[in-house]
Here is the input.
Amino acid sequence: MPPPYPFGETVTIIRPGPPTQDDYGNDVPGPDVEVEVAGCAVWPRTSSEDVQARLQVLEGLNVLAPFGTDVRPHDRARVRGVLYEVDGDPGEWRSPLTGTEGGVQIELSRVTG
Here is the structure.
């Protein structure tokens, strides 16, 4: 299946791999697993600043990935070389009239400072 946006961007979804055990027998997250998703539409969300106690900037992106892309709330995503956190549950867009599958909307956020 070709990506929905032929001039879209490639976004990398990152999640911890299957758990392993440390030297004491405790479960710890396994090495990260990265999956590249081609053909994504990417556009900015508003950003905000907190300058009262420290210089902090909250910025975000919206991503529309191909329908059926597996993204979970605790995943991370690399877009244009910058690492973001997935913000909430991604939503799947599907037309109730035609059944057309529009994609999976993912909200990403990043805090600096």
